[in-house]
Structure of N-formylglutamate amidohydrolase:
Amino acid sequence: MIDGLPYRQVGEPKRGGLVCVADHASNFVPDDIPLGITKKLLDTHVAVDIGVAGVAERMARRHDIPAHLAMVSRLVVDLHREEDHPAVVPTESDGHLIPGNIGADVEARLKKYYRPYHTALEKWLEQAEPALIISLHSFTPKLETSDEERPWEIALLHNQDDRAARHAIRLFGELGLTVGDNVPYSGKQLNATMNRHAEAHGRHYCAIEVRQDLIMTRAQQSRFAAMIADVCGRVALALD
């Protein structure tokens, strides 16, 4: 973490512009939190949304879309869950037991990581007054606990407000991508950050999931950063 903060911000928001939020951009686990798992697992989707930090960085530095990125792993505290969600400090993920989280002091982790992250995000968005928030995540092509392949290259999640998502689904499709609608997860169940910071305030948002194998390299991350920036820029104009 930087200066002990559970987040970092790249770029300066411009009022009425686009911003990016990445809740699962880091696999960092503080030394005082022994999870009881192998280091190898920290490099998998269990601990981090692979490729997201690279895409968000490129969107911020090359496409003028500032980013608010998590600096702590979802295994420490899942910033994309409600405070009272049973998996806000997960004890299992895709068939892997997280023994160090069994009986963990959830309140301490909320206080140290979760609340500062969301408080800073709230202030950042209030100052930015963005035309569109891009909530960026990635998903694995197949879960370890399932044989079901996930064919989508990119997907849009939404809960009650699907206005931006509808435009984005069409525009990504016109680029030749296989686009999912509320898959591989449904925004009706998993939309905590955008429920809180977008829908609750009437802010437009695109909750985007990119398949991880498509954003592993720098070149791939640059490609998707450009596509997302282009599509979301056009979405913002359509909603104006």
About this structure: The chain has a mean pLDDT of 96. The longest strand covers residues 132-139.
